[in-house]
Write a structure and sequence with these properties.
By secondary structure, the chain is of the alpha/beta class. It is built from 2 helices and 8 strands, in the order βαββββαβββ. A hairpin with a 2-residue loop joins strand 6 and strand 7. The longest helix has 12 residues. The relative contact order is 0.20.
Length: about 130
Amino acid sequence: MSTPANDLRLDYVEFASRDIAAARKFFTAAFGWTFTDYGPDYTSFADGRMTGGFYSAPGTPAKTNPMIVIFALNLEAAEARVKSAGGTITKPGFEFPGGRRFHFTEPSGLELAVWSHVRADGTAIA
């Protein structure tokens, strides 16, 4: 919906995917995203706050820019879900000013990250 509050904000993000079916399966299992298919070469997703899509691009490089970062209240639980869904951790959890994060690739090689503002001991990072 177009409203003044959404003016000049990210509205939709699309990813090139070497395997749309694998991406759909992974993001459903790891993060609970829902999908709507629009033919064999495109699927859209909703994560509960943002929407986007995956389009078929079999020859696309695995790593692309920009780095998309997903927020999680519990970083360890999110990492376990990523691994359980078939993701590969490419950069183990680390602290940075304001939070902690890890990087991963999904089955077709797209790299993303997950961050949290809470330490492993449950205390907030300022």
